């Protein structure tokens, strides 16, 4: 947020004053005049009030305040800076800094003692004292001579943001190529490592670079050098157009439906994403312009030569193109060691070579563009040269500027950075040995016959399977027992249903992405409807997640036996080849974090609901720790693992990391510390020791989060409080618990109850496990309103450090996001 400019009412006052002194037509608030420099604290404001230009400081810390000259949106509270003049040369002492229009019509930023900080490098000849610079309503800062001739404009010198009306040059015939260059960090506008622009050789694709290396590449433009009106629709808000001015090609963007009320701009973000930022009904939202950058697999060249990133499967992973195999045997879904793929069979170059068609591909990079070839000519071009490994072709739908309607692309070397897309992309034709093609020809004839046989057999099998589901159920249990679960023989209950894979595939529409509810380190969660109409949630453990069989058995056996209204109900399970699936009842309100950490939904959680949630979690935990026949430590309590039913009753879920204690065992320890930072007690995070008191700690954190409506590692508080434990303690110490309560409910809640909950929360997060209460005491205090609680001591451990990821406060809140699991090795 820009600081160091007058608050808005001050500006209005200024405007009013200047209006009353000057003739109305000469209001100078959007103009910079020669020898009337702009100083820190004053701003230019565009006529319609949308943009301001002036000095700002992006950092909040009191030390090290760097000042910059920039342009920002007035109405948007953050991410609002659209242009920076001196991004690489900050002003450290703003007291005498100025932005000056010199009498030689140059724009200059001076620092202390007239030190030159930045200049627009204009040297207009002679008599130009009448030039002036205006901040337009578009956000363009234009320097004109008195004759109206434009000497310089900020739109020709973009920093990290594209604005409406701005032309962004993507070829370099007579001018330098332009790129958007990210900030270094949210507080530092100096040029960061990511930049965005077009492939300088053939303008067919857009790139994000990390330094000088390609980082992501957009799918190839379907049309090339089209007259005026060609556009690419990006989403419902925005389209890109390409057009020609003189000898150069430019990109600009437009807002769909001409809705001028919404403010949209495009930013090369410091995190490596090109974002579309939209300001609508007082909310700043963003979308990603360039191909989904959320999974590593779409990073440039990630899958190696002749490999491709398959987006068409629920679990996005690297694969080899048809006819190719991995070079190394390491797990390619991990990809980190991916060396790419090689041909299964060496290519014999002869006239008989043929081409295999791969549809819906983001075609590889490093092509050769052969002009003016029809499809057949393009095929012949590739066939005639043994080095040609593949080709692609698109006939353009509109008349091209140079009269060439064709687009024949050839690959002479490796095929790199290929992706399989969903519902878009092009045909890629790969060269293969003719024999394999003949083989596939034979297949084409025999396949239908084979298929019909297979279908018949399948139908028979399904019929048989259906009858045997129950028997299979028994078998699976026996199998599980024989795999070393003998200690828990007594747990095995044959009535617990095995649900066939086929039924799950039907229920979830073959795990379609529209049924996906979320994902995390373990795999994906889908919603579905069984044939009988029952709604279910299916947890599909990912094959490569590493937390497979063990956790699976754990969860099935545990939950099968547990029955409590505050524990999620497992309806069944399925093992099918590599697939491991858990079937739960479907809870329409998703998880607690989806409410608690969403500023729109948080106010819906009234105090009575929150108290009921705290109470429910406490009862569920008490059952786990004491009241079931076993002692169970959950080990991963956090808001995303608390599901909410239709009446907002909490249900504890996700027993993948739970441990059972037998007999009188009080404490366990482990070499594999798994859990989520912020919710792990110190003795567990540091030494791997866990007991029922570990869950009590996590419960304490949950209680503090529920009362305050903030995440454990939230950055919303000032720098003095790295997390809410420290914040709660500080307020508690001063007897001021009211300030800790979520502002959206503080007016309507019972301060006695919130204060008691904060007290309990602080007792539960004590560093020493012995100082934390048992869940039985917690439940009894909550039920009876007991006020004779011991005072808490200051929690030191987590209060003094902040282990939360920095993005914690910024990340969009959905349960998928917070399901990630932190794993530490060893002690
Ligand atoms: C700066 O402080 C203001 C108010 O204290 C806050 O709203 C804003 O988010 C902070 N900005 C940054 C970049 O920390
Ligand atoms: C322009 O400004 C410089 C210094 O700022 C001054 O020395 C010079 O006389 C000025 N020229 C005119 C024509 O005003
Ligand atoms: C102005 O010119 C100098 C020297 O040619 C150059 O280093 C500087 O980057 C230029 N400044 C701008 C804003 O173009
Ligand atoms: C500058 O402009 C004024 C009037 O606009 C004119 O009288 C004067 O001769 C001009 N000087 C030069 C050096 O062009
Ligand atoms: C960008 O490049 C730098 C230096 O090569 C590297 O350390 C960093 O991890 C890269 N960032 C991403 C997101 O790939
Ligand atoms: C395209 O090729 C055809 C022959 O294949 C030729 O007649 C025509 O002039 C070419 N057009 C261009 C623009 O080169
Ligand atoms: C491209 O497509 C248009 C319309 O579909 C067709 O008229 C034209 O002949 C095609 N051009 C080539 C070179 O195939
Ligand atoms: C095949 O393509 C390569 C690479 O473009 C080129 O060097 C070679 O001359 C071509 N060979 C023939 C026979 O056209």
Number of strands: 47
In the CATH scheme, the class of the largest domain would be: Mainly Beta
Give the distinct bound molecules: 2-acetamido-2-deoxy-beta-D-glucopyranose
Estimated helix fraction: 10-25%
In terms of DSSP E residues, the strand content is: 25-35%
Q: What's the CATH architecture of the largest domain?
A: Orthogonal Prism
Number of domains: 4
Helix count, per DSSP? 12
CATH fold-type name of the largest domain = Agglutinin, subunit A
The major beta sheet can be summarized as: 8 strands, mixed
Tell me the name of the CATH homologous superfamily of the largest domain: Bulb-type lectin domain
Mean pLDDT: 77
Explained architecture:
This protein is 21% helix and 26% strand. The protein is α+β, with helices and mostly antiparallel strands. The protein folds into four domains: 31-290, Bulb-type lectin domain (Agglutinin, subunit A, Orthogonal Prism), CATH 2.90.10.10; 296-433, no CATH class; 473-586, Phosphorylase Kinase, domain 1 (2-Layer Sandwich); 589-820, Transferase(Phosphotransferase), domain 1, CATH 1.10.510.10. Strands 26-25-33-29-34-31-32-30 form an eight-stranded mixed β-sheet. A five-stranded antiparallel β-sheet has the order 35-36-37-39-38, with helices on both faces. The protein has a four-stranded antiparallel β-sheet with strand order 1-10-11-12, with no helix packed on it. A hairpin with a 6-residue loop joins strand 25 and strand 26 (317-320). The longest helix is centred in the middle third of the chain and has 49 residues, at 434-482. The two termini are 42 Å apart. Residues 1-28, 224-229, 481-494 and 800-827 have low confidence and may be disordered. One 2-acetamido-2-deoxy-beta-D-glucopyranose binds at residues 193, 210-211, 272.
């Amino acid at each position: 947020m820009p600081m160091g400019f007058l608050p808005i009412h001050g500006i209005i006052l200024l405007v009013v004053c200047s209006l009353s002194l000057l003739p109305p037509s000469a209001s100078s608030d959007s103009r910079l005049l020669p020898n009337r420099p702009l100083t820190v604290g004053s701003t230019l404001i565009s006529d319609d009030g949308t943009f301001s230009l002036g000095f700002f400081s992006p950092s909040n810390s009191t030390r090290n305040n760097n000042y910059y000259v920039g342009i920002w949106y007035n109405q948007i509270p953050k991410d609002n800076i659209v242009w920076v003049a001196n991004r690489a040369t900050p002003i450290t002492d703003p007291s005498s800094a100025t932005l000056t229009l010199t009498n030689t019509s140059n724009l200059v930023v001076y620092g202390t003692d007239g030190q030159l900080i930045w200049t627009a490098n204009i040297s207009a000849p002679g008599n130009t004292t009448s030039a002036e610079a205006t901040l337009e309503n578009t956000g363009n800062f234009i320097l004109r001579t008195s004759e109206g001739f434009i000497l310089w404009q900020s739109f020709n010198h973009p920093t990290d943001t594209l604005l409406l009306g701005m032309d962004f040059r993507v070829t370099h015939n007579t001018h330098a190529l332009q790129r958007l260059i990210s900030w270094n960090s949210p507080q530092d506008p100096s040029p960061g490592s990511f930049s965005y622009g077009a492939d300088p050789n053939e303008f067919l694709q857009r790139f994000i670079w990390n330094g000088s290396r390609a980082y992501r590449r957009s799918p190839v433009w379907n049309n090339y050098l089209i007259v005026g009106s060609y556009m690419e629709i990006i989403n419902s808000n925005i389209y890109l157009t390409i057009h020609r001015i003189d000898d150069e090609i430019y990109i600009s963007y437009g807002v769909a439906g001409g809705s001028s009320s919404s403010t949209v701009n495009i930013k090369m973000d410091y995190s490596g994403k090109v974002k579309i930022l939209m300001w609508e009904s007082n909310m700043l939202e963003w979308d990603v312009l360039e191909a989904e950058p959320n999974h590593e697999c779409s990073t440039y060249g990630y899958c190696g030569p002749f490999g491709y990133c398959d987006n068409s499967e629920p679990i996005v992973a690297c694969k080899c193109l048809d006819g190719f195999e991995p070079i190394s045997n390491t797990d390619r879904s991990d990809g980190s060691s991916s060396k790419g793929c090689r041909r299964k069979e060496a290519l014999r170059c002869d006239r008989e070579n043929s081409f295999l068609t791969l549809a819906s591909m983001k075609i590889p990079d490093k092509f050769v563009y052969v002009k003016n070839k029809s499809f057949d000519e393009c095929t012949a071009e590739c066939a005639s040269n043994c080095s040609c490994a593949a080709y692609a072709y698109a006939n353009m739908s509109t008349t091209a500027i140079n009269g060439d309607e064709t687009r024949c692309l050839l690959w002479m070397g490796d095929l790199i950075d290929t992706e399989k897309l969903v519902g878009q992309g092009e045909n890629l034709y790969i060269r293969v040995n003719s024999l394999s093609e003949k083989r596939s020809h034979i297949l084409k004839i025999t396949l239908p016959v084979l298929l019909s046989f297979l279908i018949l057999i399948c139908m028979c099998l399904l019929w048989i399977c259906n009858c045997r589901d129950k028997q299979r159920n028994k078998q699976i249990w026996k199998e599980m027992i024989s795999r070393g679960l003998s200690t828990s023989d007594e747990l095995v209950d044959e009535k617990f249903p095995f649900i066939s894979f086929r039924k799950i595939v039907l229920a979830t529409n073959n795990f379609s992405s529209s049924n996906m509810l979320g994902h995390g380190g373990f795999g994906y969660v889908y919603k579905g409807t069984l044939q009988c109409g029952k709604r279910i949630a299916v947890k599909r453990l990912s094959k490569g997640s590493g937390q497979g069989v063990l956790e699976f058995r754990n969860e099935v056996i545990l939950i099968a036996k547990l029955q409590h209204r505050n524990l999620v109900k497992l309806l069944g399970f399925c093992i099918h080849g590599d697939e491991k699936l858990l079937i739960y009842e479907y809870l329409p309100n998703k998880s607690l974090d989806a409410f608690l950490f969403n500023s729109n939904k948080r106010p819906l959680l009234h105090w009575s609901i929150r108290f009921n949630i705290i109470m429910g979690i406490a009862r569920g935990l008490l059952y786990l720790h004491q009241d079931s026949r076993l002692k169970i430590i959950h080990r991963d309590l956090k808001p995303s693992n608390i599901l909410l039913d239709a009446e907002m009753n909490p249900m504890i879920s996700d027993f993948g990391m739970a441990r059972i204690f037998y007999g009188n065992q009080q404490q366990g320890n482990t070499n594999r510390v798994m859990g989520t930072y912020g919710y792990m007690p110190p003795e567990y995070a540091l030494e791997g020791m866990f007991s029922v008191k570990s869950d009590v700690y996590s419960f304490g954190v949950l209680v503090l989060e529920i009362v305050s409506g903030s995440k454990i590692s939230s950055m919303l508080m000032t720098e003095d409080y790295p997390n809410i434990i420290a914040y709660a303690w500080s307020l508690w110490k001063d007897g001021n618990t009211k300030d800790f309560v979520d502002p959206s409910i503080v007016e309507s809640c019972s301060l006695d109850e919130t204060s008691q909950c904060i007290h309990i929360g602080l007792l539960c997060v004590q560093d020493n496990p012995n100082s934390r209460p048992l869940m039985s005491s917690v439940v009894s205090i909550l039920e009876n309103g007991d006020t004779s609680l011991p005072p808490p001591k200051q929690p030191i451990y987590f209060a003094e450090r902040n282990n939360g990821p920095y993005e914690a406060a910024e990340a969009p809140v959905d349960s998928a996001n917070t399901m990630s699991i932190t794993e530490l090795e060893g002690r």
